[in-house]
Structures are given as C-alpha cells and as structure tokens.
Amino acid sequence: MKRILITGALGQIGSELDSFLRKRYGNENVISSDIKSVTKEMISQGGTFEHIDCLDAQRIYSVIKKYKIDTVFHLAAVLSAIGEKNPQLAWKVNINGLYNVLEIAREYKCAVFTPSSIAAFGPSTPKDNTPQETTQRPNTIYGLTKVTGELLCDYYYTKYGVDTRGVRFPGIISHIALPGGGTTDYAVEIFYEGLKNKKYTCFLNKDTYLDMMYMPDALKATVNLMEADPSRLKHRNAYNVTAESFNPEQLADEIKKYIPDFEMNYNVDPMRQAIADSWPNRLDDSAAREEWGWSPDYNMEGMTKDMIEKLKLKLFTNVNN
User: Fold this and answer.
1) Residue 211 bridge partners (DSSP)
2) Structural domain that includes position 29
C-alpha cells in the first residue's frame, strides 16, 4: 500500500481507520472521503479529504486518478437497523457503490478492502463456532448485501485479478465513534449511559449472545489482512474474525465492577431483536488465525476497563476543568 483512499471515512470504523492509517503510512498517502462534510478534527490533523458519493462512479474515478490510488478501503455502507427501515437505499448504496469501486479498481489495478459482517449469516447458519464456509441465508437486507458483496469481490478476484480482501466484522465497540445504526449498538451506548446516568435500557434481551470486538482490534484486523502475503490467502472475501462473545447481562455485570450502582433495564425492540436472533453466537475464526496470523488483543474484561477509562476522560475532563 502506497496511496490509500478511504470511502465512508466519517463512519464508525472509517473515522478511526483514517488516523490509524495516517500514522502508519503518512498523512500525504491517505485520502479520506465521505458523502458527509469533513470534520474539523480531520482538518486539524492535516489530512486530505474529498467529497465522494459512492454512487457517483465518475467522482470515484477522478479521485483515484488524481491521487494515483493503489488501495481502496471501501467502508461506505448503510447498516443493519437503518437498512431494514429503507431496504432500497441499503441495496443501492451497499451493492451499487461496491460495484463502482470494483470496476474502477479493475481498470486502475487497485487492491480493495471491503468489510462484511456477521449479518452475512442467517437463522439456518450454525450459531455456535460458525464455520468459515457454511450456509449463508440472511433474512435482512443488510445481510443480503453483505453476502452479495462477498461473492462480487470473489468474482472480481477470480475473473479480473483484483486483489480483493475482507473480514466479517462482529459488533464493533469504540470510545471515539458513536453508534451508527447497527444492531450491536447497545454495547457502545451502555458505556455512555452508565457513566452519565448510571443506568441503561437495553433494546435486546439480556441473554442475547453476539460476537463483539474492540475498535483497536478491528483496525488491527483490517490492516493486517491487507498487509498479509497474498499467497497465503485462501478465503479472501471474507474472513471470520472475532474477539469475544457475550450477552448484555454479562457486559452489565462487568461494568458494575467499575460502576457498582449501575442499573440495567430492558425494553426489547422487536426488529433489532429479530435481527440479532438471526446472527451467530460465536464465529470460528481459525482460518484467519492460520492464514494471516489473526489474534485479538482485547477480551470483554480488557475492553471494558479501557472503555471506561477513556470515556471518563472524554466525558468529564472538560466539565471538571
């Protein structure tokens, strides 16, 4: 990777991948883009930002040509809960946007990273130790677009030789990026509400197990895969990756170690609960471990400790000063 373009750079993952890649490859070698307006923080970091709607192929083409891009991290997408409210938009952005990127990558010989998700699985998928290769029959439009995206990336690799790679992300937890409309968002919201109000009302049942990952591990997985020796990669699109599987009650108990009077309540959202019930409890990520050395640094305990420490500084430092 020498010249990098990030689409969806103002989203949950993109907003942190941007600074991560700049530190690794240099400010001048990372071009960030989004359909939204650039943030003051991104400007202050000295980064280069381009306004891109991923449905505008000509705009993507012009930016890739202008900066001589050789690697695209294509993160622009409509997430699960929002996708169910507007499935037409989800299909258009998630599939047509990806197609535009792949077509341009084919011409310009760019490598492409596109994240998939645990949403690519469905009710008929084995829920425990979900294999790398298994039944994928999702019942959400978001999941459907992720399966289609995996197959499309495979096609562009086998048909045209485009260096496509991806991972199936679990729920991502971050102390920087706010939730963006996903079914696993409770695992971020709970920390904010716990620290500010010492209570949280969860929209999932207390015994709903889902795979989760702390953002530093998500960034690590993304970059490590793109830096991996291509000759070792048998499952390019996309690798199961995980760090920890837990339910809301277990996370609440862990938070109580730091906020003893924290109170957890439940008001189940039927739509998001149905989505969560269709997803695996725990992925088998042995293929990623064997083929490119994947290994997470954080479990639930380590993530919780770090989240609370970082969010205390974020939420209360300015108030106290």
Assistant:
1) 245
2) 4-170+215-240
- Same-domain pairing of 208 and 109: no
Report which of 166, 168, 206, 137 is spatially closest to residue 282, judged by C-alpha positions: 168
Residue indicated by tokens 């993109």: 14
Q: Which two tokens stand for residue 88?
A: 């037409």
* CA dihedral sign, ordered 36, 41, 43, 47: negative
Please, are residues 79 and 182 in contact by the beta-carbon 8 Å criterion?
yes
* Structural domain total, the chain: 2
Q: Are 52 and 8 in contact (CB under 8 A)?
A: no
| Residue whose entry in the numeric block shows the structure tokens 């530190």 | 23
Q: 238-294: per-residue pLDDT in tens?
A: 999 999 999 999 999 999 999 999 999 999 999 899 989 999 999 999 999 999 999
Read off the pTM.
0.92
Known active-site residue 258: no
Beta bridge partners of 112: 72, 164
Q: Which of 142, 157, 214, 298 is catalytic?
A: 142
Q: What is the DSSP string of 219-237?
A: HHHHHHHHHS-GGG-S--S
